[in-house]
């Protein structure tokens, strides 16, 4: 049962990422067509695009974290036997979680400061609303790293050859 829910969550994340990318592409094309053909544009398109790119980056990083395709320095574990590799894996995952959770905490503080003196984002939406992706994205990545610390590390390979 939990595996099925997790699979659904992963499909939802992938769908959300694809929908966001498609929406940003459509918005950009529409903006270009409006400017070239009609010498006009959508006044809200640029701030929405900027926020969308931030959402896209953090959702993409969250997806990369899920599948272990994020940037990692893993030269040392490749040469270690299984038991020390497991310890180094756990330490590195906890360290990554601490960094992500610290960024989530700082992002939450940034949202709080923005809430004190909000600027309109678009159509009555305050500027702090799109900024919520920062603490949420980094918080979820931190949780993913913490969970990964307790599972077996992936099989270390060096140039495609197992040790």
Quick description:
The protein has helices at 2-38, 45-67, 75-78, 82-116, 128-131, 133-149; strands spanning 120-122, 125-126.
Description:
With 163 residues, this protein is mainly alpha-helical. The protein has one domain (2-149). The protein is 74% helix and 3% strand. The chain has 6 helices and 2 strands. The protein has helices spanning 2-38, 45-67, 75-78, 82-116, 128-131, 133-149, and strands at 120-122, 125-126. A two-stranded antiparallel ribbon has the order 1-2. α1 packs antiparallel against α2 (45-67) and α2 (45-67) runs parallel beside α6 (133-149). The radius of gyration is 20 Å and the shape is elongated.
Descriptors for this entry?
74% helix; disordered C terminus; 6 helices
Topology:
Blueprint: H1 2-38, H2 45-67, H3 75-78, H4 82-116, E1 120-122, E2 125-126, H5 128-131, H6 133-149
Antiparallel strand pairs: 1-2
Helix pairs in contact: 1-2, 2-6, 4-6
